[in-house]
TrEMBL record:
Pfam families, per the entry: MlaD (PF02470)
Ranges annotated as spanning the membrane: none
GO BP annotations, alphabetical order: phospholipid transport
Source organism, top-level taxon: Bacteria
Domain Mce/MlaD: residue ranges: 38-115
Identification of the protein by name: Phospholipid/cholesterol/gamma-HCH transport system substrate-binding protein
Signal peptide: none
Amino acid sequence: MSSYKVSEVLVGGAVLAGAIAFGVYASQSTGLSQGGSGYELNASFRSLEGVGVGTDVRLAGVKIGTVTGVTLNPETYRADTTFAISDGILVPDDSAIVISSEGLLGGNFVEVMPGGSLFNFEPGDQVEDTQGAVSLISLLVKFVAGDGGE
């Protein structure tokens, strides 16, 4: 029988607590801990570059939901996307959904551009007004090549 020192038990407990805290943080930041709260909306994009399951959905820079599903529609060749919006957030039914970038080196996120309608999307509705991701590489190539629309 070996006797453990108090310091060894405390260090082991601290390591275990740190591992649990990291696991909780990782599951929340990747969207794995999505609960039943909120409602889902659907949208179809020409390009969904940089967006995947767990990507933030933001309104006015504030996270209001996450992307919960991404599939390729074989008939339209568009990315069909499902995202969950938090309960209590009402999105007008003439709103646009845009893929935005956090900056030159930042990642992409889904941005809700609210409309002015008095009516709101219902759970499961399809958002028709969408704008896909803009490739910064293709914009840079056009700029360098001089295809500025002249």
